[in-house]
Write a structure and sequence with these properties.
Distance between the termini of chain B: 40 Å
Largest sheet of chain A: 7 strands, mixed
Bound molecules: FE2/S2 (inorganic) cluster
Number of helices of chain B: 6
CATH class of the largest domain in chain A: Alpha Beta
Distance between the termini of chain A: 47 Å
CATH architecture of the largest domain in chain B: Roll
Shape of chain B: globular
Number of strands of chain B: 5
Largest interface: A-B, 66 and 65 residues
Strand content of chain A: 15-25%
Number of domains of chain B: 2
CATH architecture of the largest domain in chain A: 2-Layer Sandwich
CATH superfamily of the largest domain in chain B: Beta-grasp domain
Oligomer: heterodimer
Number of helices of chain A: 18
CATH topology of the largest domain in chain A: Aldehyde Oxidoreductase, domain 4
């Protein structure tokens, strides 16, 4: 059954290869090593099986077909970060096969294991497991060769280019292609101690191999979620309550030309949006355009949000300012001593820090807006149900195609909705989720709102359906990067910082999801403000929850996108106060050799800064995200008021072992663009819950002619791989602000630089 | 039912409203999903196709006006069994795409510019499409040499 999910629409990854090769190969039998690719590097299970058995699958497997095919299957999300290529590189390395010999396919999803792709763990979190799996498969093949010769001395065997070679005494030198050993290998046992390749001997890891998905992405064959298509499907457009938190006041009549109008319940609690409340209607028609047109025209009555002030950005900003001045804080760092709560500890430590601060050299408040993800591919999900009976009451199979960062949550969403409507629960294995390509994820596509709506529509109309959000709905009903106000007070002394007090006021991403224990600090809110690499006399980091009703979520680099701006601007301001060079000032505060090496690399990369043309200036910032240390130096000029030209960005980083240096560079280039868009123009404002920016025309982004020249340098450290997907985002905004201050002599402490910017047509 | 010429083939499309943007006829009626929806208002360029050799934004190009014209989508640029178009080859060489969603539109715009005889910086100045992934540096490097 579950193999069916491999056929459409994810399909084959490497062009010019035999279609559905892994599928055919598995039908031929061969060797499968199943394993889990968890968030952390734990190996949860490792076993050999005769042919892949989807029922017992973990969440990934390596399959070696008797035809010699080598396939990696996994259930994660390719959203531009090159995950498929990176994973295949790691596997091929240990399996001792050539790069060209590996094919990567999406695997069917087992709803009981995690497929969450986020937090930049896509490759880094899977490094050890994948190496182990590759080595296990290799050793099983060697065991099979041992059985053939009767010689069990491992030293007589070697593996290379998908061939096992024997050089021992039994019958003279022999060799076997992997395919000829695959069937027998399946009945061998994995040796207890698996030798992994020493990094010095890597052939494929660390090489800039071309991505496996590139061919399909230049010829239009790559299938994104929005591209799911069957000849008999119908199309749904969604129309939410115009104001966040609004609900449907009465079901509208079905307009002429529509197949159906389906009221949709909200999937989750998100601020003023309550799970189960009907906050949208879907209109179903014969094509998306018609559905959208009918949805636009639909006469719908909506109840306003219960508290319009809580979803109004001007009122939220005023509330944040007042909480910054006098709100009760929770201490994030230093950790509260045993027996004290983060809130209780604040009253103990605040007087000590205030005392150490005296009259601070710096007392600055930085503010940041709500941001939209604005993924290039809008929210979309396709669902096809199968029923046991002709009257379509008992759902027995549910196929979902979704651009999702959390396929197992999708399966859970489907099970809950289906089982709410039938006495006999659907079998978990009858829910088949195919993760399509994602036209950008950026943290938006872990959410279940669009998934739930598509399933609700499919259940209502009892037809295969694709639901698509128009761009206006996407901007108006995101799970936004939270707005924040951050105050930093700091005192200088002895060439360093003697006291530092950072207070962040922002909404709680975890709290909105019910994931935050009462009285605890939201780790997402203070990320980038704690565990700073800088040595300081006394340091206090606090969080004040902002009880606003805007749905908030994970936006590429999450809390670091906020706090790194405050911290790195503040450090630069302190350097200015001290009359110190910003490189030297930071180096003086650093003790970790990795940070120092990255800072020094950025220094060397940006020697151009010493001879800039008149009217140009440079700025520097650094940050650590998920183990990856990044330092960026930006060169800017301001040819006209209301704009900035960013000429170049030097980017040095230590991401441990780089799997694919070219893709590391791509992530740095792209992350810098993402951060630039946000710093210069990014902002969503709400008037009583209605987003004021509904399309890219009012959410400006850079275009190709505004792209700075980005140079990337990897600083080797010998560490295992750490995340690269988000690390480039946090430093660019403070680097710009620090450059701007050098250029203009005045500080930008409130982002974006240019609010209200618009973007013209093509 | 209307008759269109798409990628060199005559096809029947079941649409009643001739004001329907070509984008949605291609995607939903004909199942040609390589042409993408991004904004619907001619800001992003994801929906770019060639109509009689000219670049057009199919999100605002009504299907009625495409009748009798030659429509080329990304799927028709290098039909199965043929070599990739030089623009596609250059894109692969420089490993341009990240998520890939904006790329068909980018490539079609580039092809249209080259058909009009534009190269290098002139061609580059026409590449105004949005790429949220930020592949601009590679697009610039690629187009500069076309
Ligand atoms: S979808 Fe046509 S220009 Fe954006
Ligand atoms: S490659 Fe993702 S939007 Fe351009």
């Amino acid at each position: 059954m579950a193999h069916g999910t491999l056929r459409t629409p994810a399909g084959e990854e490497k062009k010019h290869r035999i279609g559905r090769r892994g599928f055919i190969a598995s039908a031929l039998g061969g060797l499968s090593v199943a394993f889990t690719l968890p968030e952390t590097g734990r190996v949860l299970g490792l076993k050999a099986a005769q042919g892949p058995d989807p029922g017992t699958l973990a969440n990934a497997y390596v399959h070696i077909g008797t035809d010699g095919s080598i396939t990696l299957m996994f259930g994660g999300a390719e959203m531009g970060q090159g995950i498929k290529t990176g994973l295949a590189q790691i596997l091929a390395e240990e399996l001792m096969v050539d790069w060209e010999q590996v094919t990567v396919q999406q695997s069917p999803v087992n709803p009981t294991v995690s497929y969450l792709t986020g937090g930049s763990t896509a490759v880094s979190g899977r490094y050890n497991n994948l190496r182990t799996a590759g080595a296990a498969a290799r050793e099983l093949l060697i065991q099979a060769a041992m059985t053939a010769t009767g010689d069990r001395d491992r030293n007589h065997y070697s593996a290379a280019h998908a061939v096992v070679t024997y050089t021992g005494p039994n019958g003279g030198p022999q060799s076997w292609p992997y395919g000829s050993l695959a069937a027998r290998a399946a009945s061998e046992a994995v040796p207890a101690d698996l030798r992994l390749t020493a990094p010095a001997n890597f052939r494929i890891i660390g090489k800039p191999v071309p991505r496996v998905d590139t061919p399909s992405k230049v010829d239009g064959s790559a299938k994104f979620g929005i591209d799911t298509w069957f000849p008999d499907m119908v199309f749904a457009a969604i129309r939410h309550a115009p104001a966040i938190g609004g609900t449907l006041a009465g079901t509208p009549a079905k307009p002429e030309g529509a197949i159906a109008v389906v009221p949709c319940k909200a999937s989750d609690n998100r601020g003023s949006v309550k799970a189960g409340s009907i906050n949208a209607v879907a209109v179903v028609a014969s094509n998306t355009w018609l559905a959208k047109k009918l949805a636009d025209k639909l006469s719908v009555k909506w109840n306003p949000p219960p508290s319009p002030a809580s979803v109004d950005s001007a009122q939220i900003a005023a509330q944040a300012a007042s909480l910054l001045a006098g709100g009760a804080a929770l201490v994030a760092e230093p950790a509260a001593p045993a027996g004290q709560t983060p809130a209780g500890y604040a009253s103990v430590i605040e007087p000590q820090v205030a005392n150490a601060l005296g009259t601070p050299a710096l007392d600055a408040t930085y503010t940041l807006p709500f941001l939209s993800h604005a993924t290039m591919e809008v929210m979309s999900c396709s669902v096809r149900l199968t029923w046991a009976d002709s009257s379509k009451t008992l759902v027995t199979r549910c196929e979902i195609w979704a651009p999702t960062q959390a396929a197992n949550w999708v399966a859970g969403t489907a099970a809950a909705l289906i089982n709410a409507g039938q006495a006999t629960p659907i079998s978990p294995s009858a829910i088949e989720v195919t993760t399509t390509y994602l036209g950008g994820g950026l943290g938006r596509k872990i959410e279940q709102d669009y998934i739930s709506q598509a399933i609700q529509v499919a259940l209502a109309v009892k037809l295969p359906v694709k639901l698509t959000w128009m761009r206006e709905e996407d901007f108006s009903h995101d799970n936004y990067r939270p707005t924040a106000a951050v105050r930093v007070q700091a005192t200088l002394g002895g060439g360093g910082v003697t006291a530092w007090w950072l207070r962040n006021v922002s909404q709680s991403i975890l709290g909105q999801r019910g994931w935050l224990p009462p009285g605890a600090v939201d780790s997402q809110a203070v990320e980038g403000a704690v565990h700073l690499p800088y040595t300081m006399g006394i340091r206090l980091t606090e969080w004040v929850p902002l009880p606003a009703g805007i749905p908030v979520g994970f936006w590429r680099s999450v809390g670091s996108s906020i706090n790194t701006f405050a911290v790195e601007c503040a450090i630069d301001e302190l350097a200015q106060h001290a009359g110190a060079d910003p490189f030297a000032f930071r180096q003086n505060l650093l003790s970790d050799p990795r940070h120092i090496a990255v800072l020094q690399a950025a220094d060397q990369m940006s020697l151009w800064r010493l001879s800039l043309p008149k009217g140009h200036a440079w700025g520097l910032a650094m940050s650590e995200w998920n183990g990856t240390i990044v330092c960026q130096v930006a060169e800017i000029s301001q040819p006209a008021a209301g704009s900035l030209t960013v000429h170049r960005v030097a980017c040095a980083l230590d991401c441990g072992q780089a799997i694919n240096p070219d893709q590391v560079a791509a992530q740095m280039e792209g992350g810098i663009v993402h951060g630039l868009n946000a710093a210069l123009w990014g902002q969503v404002t709400f008037t009583a819950g209605k987003a004021d920016q509904k399309n890219y025309s009012r959410y400006r982004m850079i275009r190709v002619k505004e792209m700075p020249q980005v140079t990337v340098q990897l600083v080797p450290s010998g560490n295992p791989p750490s995340g690269i997907g988000e690390a480039a985002v946090p430093p660019i905004a403070p680097a710009l602000a620090n450059a701007y201050s050098r250029l203009r002599g005045s500080r930008v402490r409130s982002l974006p630089f240019f609010p209200g910017a618009t973007m013209g047509g093509l | 039912m209307i008759t269109l010429n798409v990628n060199g083939k005559t096809v029947q499309a079941n649409v009643t409203d001739k004001d329907t943007p070509l984008l949605w006829v291609l995607r939903d009626v004909l199942g040609l999903t390589g042409t993408k929806y991004g904004c619907g208002i001619e800001v992003c360029g994801a929906c770019t196709v060639l109509i009689d050799g000219q670049r057009e934004h199919s999100c605002v190009f009504d299907v009625g006006s495409a009748i009798g014209k030659q429509i080329v989508t990304i799927e028709g640029l290098s039909p199965a069994g043929t070599q990739n178009h030089p623009v596609q080859q250059a894109w692969i060489r420089n490993q341009v795409p990240q998520c890939g969603y904006c790329q068909p539109g980018m490539i079609m715009a580039c092809v249209a510019g080259m058909k009009a005889g534009h190269h290098g910086s002139e061609l580059l100045s026409e590449m105004k499409h949005l790429c949220v992934c930020g592949t601009y540096q590679r697009i610039r490097d690629t187009v500069a040499n076309l």
